[in-house]
């Protein structure tokens, strides 16, 4: 059944793969981004998927953007909170600014994305909330106190939303990717990246499409009894 899906940060990296995969399932997809107009235009030219620009860290911008998507495409039944950033530093060097930027985007951004669509999902008695967490939220990571806090927070969010939404036909789940070959990971110095790959039993980075397939499954009718769960896709790097 064709539904309306919103993917934040859906124009690049993992989000772009998710947007494309949801479109391939027959859904009407809206992909958002923060400021990279060039990447968004190239994405629309390639896929035909409509893009919207707003900052997920801002509640009013998110609510207004979501209202625009719902007016133009339809009520949102599938929401994928994917937009995320890193601002890495060892804790003793981490600035309050680095802490707040990551919390505002990755954690408050999830609230700002899901809250405006939640009442509609409750009324229509259907919803799929999927949050892109991370292996580093499950196990912690050097120089990522801020990032790991947000990604562990995502797991708490979906476990709580699952309990609130279950009777209303809404599921909320998280996907925890391991290291995936996107710009975020390719920006890491090559030596560090090599040492990361050496720690992955699969011996390679994951592909964005491997995460997208977890999302399309969770978004499907087949996943109706999976609620409050996390799917780990990390090449056996960490078990949880
Ligand atoms: P990318 O950096 O490749 O893409 C990020 C996307 O998010 C872009 O579309 C970007 O928009 C958008 N974005 C960033 N900040 C904001 C904001 N404030 N408001 C709206 N949109 C924003 O990221 P990845 O694809 O690598 O990561 C996607 C998600 O997966 C993140 O949540 C990340 O934490 C998580 N993840 C990634 C892993 C990896 O190995 N890559 C591993 C585990 C989890 P714009 O193009 O305008 O900048």
Structure description:
It is a single chain. The protein has 240 residues and is of the alpha/beta class. It has a single domain, classed as NAD(P)-binding Rossmann-like Domain (Rossmann fold), CATH 3.40.50.720. It has nine helices and seven strands. It has a seven-stranded parallel sheet, with helices on both faces. Strand 4, helix 4 (96-124) and strand 5 (127-132) form a beta-alpha-beta unit. Helix 1 (13-24) crosses helix 9 (208-219), helix 3 (59-72) runs parallel beside helix 4 (96-124) and helix 4 (96-124) packs parallel to helix 6. Bound molecules: NADPH dihydro-nicotinamide-adenine-dinucleotide phosphate (NDP). NADPH dihydro-nicotinamide-adenine-dinucleotide phosphate (NDP) binds next to helix 1, strand 2 and helix 7. It comes from Roseovarius marisflavi.
Identify the CATH homologous superfamily. Answer: NAD(P)-binding Rossmann-like Domain
Strand order of the largest sheet: 3-2-1-4-5-6-7
Under the CATH scheme, which architecture would be assigned?
A: 3-Layer(aba) Sandwich
- Please give the count of helices: 9
CATH fold assignment: Rossmann fold
Q: Let me know the largest β-sheet.
A: 7 strands, parallel
Bound molecules: NADPH dihydro-nicotinamide-adenine-dinucleotide phosphate
Question: Could you name the ranges where pLDDT drops below 50 across 5 or more consecutive residues?
Answer: none
What would you call the structural class? alpha/beta
């Amino acid at each position: 059944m064709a539904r309306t899906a919103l993917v934040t940060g859906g124009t690049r990296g993992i989000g772009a793969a998710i947007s494309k995969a949801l479109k391939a399932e027959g859904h009407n997809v809206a992909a958002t981004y923060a400021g990279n107009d060039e990447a968004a235009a190239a994405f629309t030219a390639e896929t035909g998927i409509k893009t919207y620009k707003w900052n997920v860290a801002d509640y009013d911008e998110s609510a207004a953007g979501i209202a625009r998507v719902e007016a133009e495409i339809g009520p949102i039944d599938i929401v994928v909170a994917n937009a995320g950033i890193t601002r890495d530093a060892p804790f003793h060097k981490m600035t309050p600014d680095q802490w707040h930027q990551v919390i505002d985007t990755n954690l408050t951004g999830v609230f700002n994305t899901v809250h405006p669509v939640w009442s509609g999902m409750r009324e229509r008695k259907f919803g799929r909330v999927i949050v892109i967490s991370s292996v580093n939220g499950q196990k912690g990571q050097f120089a990522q106190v801020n990032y790991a806090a947000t990604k562990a927070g995502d797991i708490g969010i979906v476990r709580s939303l699952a309990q609130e939404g279950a009777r209303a036909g809404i599921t909320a789940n998280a996907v925890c990717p391991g290291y995936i070959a996107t710009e975020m990971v390719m920006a890491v110095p090559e030596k560090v990246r090599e040492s990361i790959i050496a720690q992955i039993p699969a011996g390679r980075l994951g592909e964005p499409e491997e995460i997208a397939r977890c999302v399309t499954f969770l978004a499907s009718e087949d996943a109706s009894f999976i609620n409050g769960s996390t799917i780990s896709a990390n090449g056996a790097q960490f078990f949880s």
